[in-house]
Amino acid sequence: MYQITRNLGLGSYKITEVVGGLENSVALKGIYGCKLKKILNTTYVDVVSKPWQIWVNRETKRTTVNKNYLSETESGILYLDFVHEMIHIWQIVEGKDVFDRSVSYADASTEIEAYRYTIEDAKRIGFSRIDMVNYLKVRWITDKEHSRLVKAVLG
Q1: How far is CA 22 from CA 6, 74, 106, 137, in A?
Q2: What gap in Å lies between CA 119 and CA 14, rounded to an integer?
Q3: Which residues are registered as beta bridge partners of 12?
Q4: C-alpha closest to that of 119 among 89, 52, 44, 111
Q5: Does 50 or 14 have the greater pLDDT score?
Q6: What pLDDT, in 10s, does the model give residues 117-136?
Q7: What is the number of alpha carbons within 13 Å of residue 1 lying toward its C-beta?
Q8: 37 and 92 Cβ atoms separated by less than 8 Å
């Protein structure tokens, strides 16, 4: 279904070297269509020692992941995180401002859209509703923001 290569050194890798199975993502197939395989073969991930977890780098437009986060986080969560970041890359290409912080993270249209797509894959890989609710709880939002995000994404 999916696989994560965990013990990578700092550096740049093809996304397919870091996470396998993205070609089966319902969300990514829906967004990228027949171009998905080519996009996956030309997309890179930077493994770094910066303190954040996983994000799209503003300058390189690459997914960037903390080495410890990559090695320690549960595989299903990591898989969904990579799907989520690939959706952000698509949003950037489409001209959407994924870095707009004039609204709360939980209320940002790009985050809600990315999570809605990501949840399609969460269902496909067997996440329960409570697993999905927990997945949407990221450490940089409050409990109130989490509740709003859950409502916006899951209904």
Answers
A1: 16, 16, 25, 23
A2: 24
A3: 46
A4: 111
A5: 14
A6: 999 999 999 999 999 999 99
A7: 11
A8: no
Tens-digit pLDDT profile for residues 66-120? 999 999 999 999 999 999 999 999 999 899 999 888 988 899 999 999 999 999 9
Q: Where are the alpha helices (DSSP H) in the chain?
A: 15-18, 26-32, 36-42, 67-72, 75-93, 109-124, 129-135, 143-154
Query: And the tokens for 40?
Result: 């996956």
Q: How far apart are CA 60 and CA 141, in angstroms?
A: 26
In the block, tokens 């197939």 appear at 29
CA distance 83 to 117: 8
